[in-house]
Amino acid sequence: MSDNPHPTQPKKDGSSDAAQNRVSISSRLEHFEKRQADLLRLIYLILVIVVSAFLWTQWSTLRSFVYRLEAAAFGLIVLVLLVGAYAWHRTREISELRGLVRGLEQRDVTSANDKQLEQLFGMISRSQQGYRDLIDSFDDVLIALSLEGEIRAANRRFSDLVGLNFQQIIGKKLSEFLDESGGQGIADAQEGITRFLERRNWSGIVQVRLKNRNAVYYFDCVAHAMVRDDAVHGITVLARDVTAFRRNEARFTELFETLQEGIYIVTPEDRIMDANPALVRILGYDSKDELLVRKVSDIFPDESLRNIVRSEVDRQPVLEGREIMLIRKDGKPIICLNTAAAVRDASGKIIRYQGALMDVTARREIERRLHKQQEFARRLVDSFPDVIFVVDTQARYTFVSPNVKEVLGMDVEETMAKSFADCVHPDDQSMTKSLFADIASGKQNFGSLEVRIRHKAGDWRYIRAHFSPLSAEAGGIDGVVISSRDVTELKRLSEQLIQAEKLAAIGQMLAGVAHELNNPLTAILGVTELVREREGLDDAMKRQLDLTHRQARRAARIVQNLLEFARPAAPQRKPVDINNILERTLQLHEHSLRRNSIEVSFQQQEGIANVVGDASQLIQVFLNLIINAEQAICEVRDSGRIQVRVASSSRKVTITIQDDGVGISQEAASKIFDPFYTTKRPGGGTGLGLSICVAILREHGGTVEAQSLPAGGSAFTVVLPAAAPEQSPSAPTPGGISQGNAPRAGTSHGEKGQHDADATPTSSRPPVPTAVKGRSILVLDDEESIRSLLEEGLSNHGLRVACAASAEEAAKLAATGNFDALLCDLNLGATGGISSGRDAAAHVVASAGGNKPIVIFMTGELVCGSEDRGGFGGSAFLQKPFRILDVLSVLRESFTAVPSAKP
Fold this sequence. Notes:
Layout: H1 5-64, H2 70-105, H3 114-136, E1 141-146, E2 151-154, H4 156-162, H5 166-169, H6 186-199, E3 201-210, E4 215-228, E5 231-241, H7 243-258, E6 262-266, E7 272-275, H8 277-282, H9 288-292, H10 296-299, H11 303-315, E8 318-327, E9 333-344, E10 350-359, H12 361-383, E11 387-392, E12 397-400, H13 404-408, H14 412-416, H15 426-441, E13 447-454, E14 460-471, E15 477-486, H16 488-532, H17 539-566, E16 574-576, H18 578-588, H19 590-595, E17 598-602, E18 611-613, H20 615-636, E19 640-648, E20 652-659, H21 666-669, H22 689-699, E21 703-708, E22 714-721, E23 737-738, H23 754-757, E24 776-780, H24 784-795, E25 800-804, H25 807-816, E26 821-825, H26 837-847, E27 854-859, E28 876-879, H27 884-897
Parallel strand pairs: 17-19, 24-25, 24-26, 26-27, 27-28
Antiparallel strand pairs: 1-2, 1-5, 3-4, 4-5, 6-7, 6-10, 8-9, 9-10, 11-12, 11-15, 13-14, 14-15, 16-18, 19-20, 20-22, 21-22, 23-28
Helix pairs in contact: 1-2, 2-3, 16-17, 16-24, 18-20, 20-22, 25-26
């Protein structure tokens, strides 16, 4: 036994050493497992805390981003759970491995069987496969290289990229898969290896061209050295494909450089980080570097607005279209539209602002000019007297000028709510719509018409409308522009002008007729006076002479009234007797009333105050009212009655004209005084009579009212202001004299009292005035009857009379004899050579030499006191027909006015 102590000792020692090694491995594995479990728990706890803190502090920031990132928070939670599951799985594998190792420690006691070895190899195989699967699951390229560039390991991403399997890749050099023509060269790689061996790590962007792809790729690479015993044996490279990112970056850079809008990136510290060429151009700088050295406040100097914009960008994801004013390099201000957003870091702090600027200075200038033009056009339309309507092709109003209120009484909105031609008179709608259709279809370029349009108050207005097309931008017709003018008043004035022209024509005709009538009437009146003065006339002859004289005077009065109405003199406001005005009016219309069997009840009232006015105009008013009453009666009966009543007070005179005719309907009561309103059939009247009456009475300070009577018929009441008590009608000049400012002839039998006009000639001859006796009178008239009458009548009163039928004959008589007065007709016949009475009188006076006679003109026309006296300052006018007594009165007044004129 002693021989073998040593052989057994080594075995014991070897067994003891192996046991110690196995105990050491087992304890190390257990210690490693414990440390790994503690580390994983610590990492997992830290990860949970970090994620929770991040979500707690940044939840509001995540919600404020343009893109909704709330789902990213839930993604982080899921990621933490996955990491925990992966760590638990790895811990189980290590625990199983440690269990197998512990089984191997007992191999001296019990040898490891095949099952345990199989389990151990299976575990190792699964561990390798798990790491292989983990590496292959990377989206990035992962390769292990030798220092000579041979590939020792690679993941599936690299295999897919080069299109080869692992057997074709492992052991090959990396350069075999790259095309040097499109990437970085071998020299760059060798230079990089040298720097890498010094630093043992490297990162950067690598541009390569793969042979099988024939395309350039960009990889963001991170390389680490594989070190063993402090010596580098190889390189591990993790490369991320950033080709798409670089291409997008290139596109963005191209877009950034070519955009017409200015792009900027600035910091909260007032520094400009970047700007594109468009912004450099907009701000007028020569280069980008020149702009980048400026501060934001240099370009955007309005601090208050700058702070407002910054606060708006901070509050909302994107600020769009904020108008700001910037300053160019040359100091000129420009207006820009700013669209900006804030860029934040992971903690939510703003690290920069970026946005776009659009220069709208030119646009704002155009808008300002356009606004100015639009304002000018609006003001022009507002001040334009016409109403402007714009109607589209569907006959809908698109614009109505504001002055439609003045013309039609409707607001703009009220008018636009109506359809086209709604307010047009039914009789005018057809031609209105037809013209509109022709303009809208392009058949006509312009058209005009006159239509009646209903006012809001209900009356019809005459509107003259001009139609023209509204051209569209494409060249077609977009609508119709209608310029409308209210011509109601113009039409009324036109009708009045036509009426005045008619009256003027009638006046011219009546002037000639009056001249022809007044000559024989003068002869009749004179002869009846001469015969009446003869002795030995029986009563029957006297009655016949009186009747002839009265009828001649009546005819003369009718002729004078016709002249006054048809050819009124210039308006003369003076006190007039309203009874006399009404009497003259009824005389003018007496024949028509008698023919229609209409009885007129009028009794002149004593003590009626005078009114101040123009007699001719007042006659026109009352004549219109009488004619209306006559026509109202004729509509319903064959005979009727008109009552004329006059009353007065201290301040006014009231005249009422009442008829028993058709009356006034309720509809017509409110419009009866409107211009052109008439209830007569077409052609029966213009509808201007009563409106003219209103206008005349308004000028006289008076009014007129109409009412329908319950028993039938109507009554018109005219109210005129009474004249002051000290005012009274001017006293007439006897014999129709008109000398200087004396009243016109005929006043004595017109305005003073009608009884003088119809008075019977007295049988006794009145005494001849002393100023007339023995005077020598030269009569120049182309009417033989007038010459004979004056010669005989004046001779009977002690005057010497010579007569001539022509101016030449009268001039010869004046040259050979001395005459105190020349009675000259204003309208001589053409047979005598000189037809104008004024020219003839001038010729005769010139022939008289030093003894010039007084000139008295005789005329059958209306004398108003303002006639042309032909240069004869002291001349007078004698209106035909006249009596011999009238001639004597005119001669007396003329000789009295010229004291030096002695017989």
